[in-house]
Amino acid sequence: MDFSFTDEQRQLRDSISALLRDRYGFDARRNASRSEPGWRPDIWRTLTRELGLGGAAFPERLGGAGGGAVETMIIMEELGSVLALEPWLETIVLAGGLLQACGGAVADAALRDIIAGDAVLAFGWAEPASRYAFSDVVTTARRDGSGWKLDGHKTLVAAAPWAGAIIVSARTGGGVHDRDGISLFIVPVDRPGVTLRAYPTIDGRRSADVLLEGVTLPAEALIGPEGGALPLIEQVGDAGVAALCAEAVGITRRLLSDTIAYTAQRRQFGQPIGGFQALQHRMVDMYQQVEHAASASYLATLHLGSAPHERAKAVSAATVAIGGVCKFVGQNAVQLHGGMGMTEELPIGHYFKRATVIEGELGSSDWHLRRYDRLARNAA
């Protein structure tokens, strides 16, 4: 595998890093999180419209730049480094990925709006009893004249309070746990029968539970193959996990750098505590773990184009590795900051909270370990 970046990819990283360094300080992020909107639409417009990053990973025929998974990895790592609130994962990676995978006139038009920065979409897949299985779908979609009628409950739909529409998985056939019979629909949030119960999450973001009660949709709201959407969902779900791995790399790098800076200026017994050998050893261990996370992120990203079982194995392996890194680096960063580690005033606690949420956002480490074991056994 080639682990070197192209000149264009290096320029991409430099441009995002410069923008975020100038306009996304910790205080600005904290204030945005506490505000009524809960995010910074101006930053979203700058990233998507002015820098044109909304299409970095999409084909040129849709208005994109012709990039792919590596470009997404670079962007997510930089967004993680500043703890960005903007729904890049939810809108660009997940919703955009589903629209690209499904294809068709309606999906392509929606994706062009996302690329242009004119639309925010979310993906509603989780249900109260589904845990992390995309195939556990109780929400139903049944024929209603020439269109559809949806009923169900989606929970913890990240970025839903900011979205104009939600891509919803619903069952058009089969039983609750069947792999067949799952379809995807674009549901405008202002459609009669759609109720959003929004709330802040522990990492400073916004999510919502989405209730669908007799929601009528036109025929074109169905995107992708009727009853055959699960493989597409799993493919895009793995891309989402790889993006989260990249975000975790950015977060753990910041946890490490802030810890090094703090221990260099915090004094005890007349000298900086960073001079104590025991603490130096701990920070070296943190550095090794961060580099381990970066390698795991590369593993997941570079396997996204592999066969489904190889892709899933690589993504699950990376998730397990990075879950351990987030825990180790986060806990040590907090401990080396002492009592200040979990205060609202310092960034460190906020980064630790986001790292903790990432560990279970699209499958916990335990869930991915079981999936890896199952895939390995099946392959054998």
Element order: H for helix, E for strand: HHHHHHEEEEEEEEHEEHHHH
Question: Alpha-carbon distance between the termini?
Answer: 24 Å
Tally the helices: what do you get?
A: 11
Q: Give average pLDDT, whole number.
A: 94
Structural class: alpha+beta
Largest beta sheet: what is the strand line-up? 1-4-5-8
- Overall 3D form: globular
Poorly predicted tracts of residues: none
Amount of helix: 40-55%
Biggest sheet, open or closed, and with what strands and sense? Answer: 4 strands, mixed
Defining traits:
11 helices, alpha+beta, 4-stranded mixed sheet, 380 residues, 16% strand, 4-stranded antiparallel sheet
Short summary of the structure?
With 380 residues, this protein is of the alpha+beta class. It contains eleven helices and ten strands. The chain has helices spanning 7-23, 26-34, 41-50, 69-82, 88-102, 105-115, 230-265, 277-302, 308-336, 347-358, 365-379; strands at residues 121-124, 140-144, 147-158, 165-171, 182-188, 194-200, 206-217, 222-223, 267-268, 271-272.
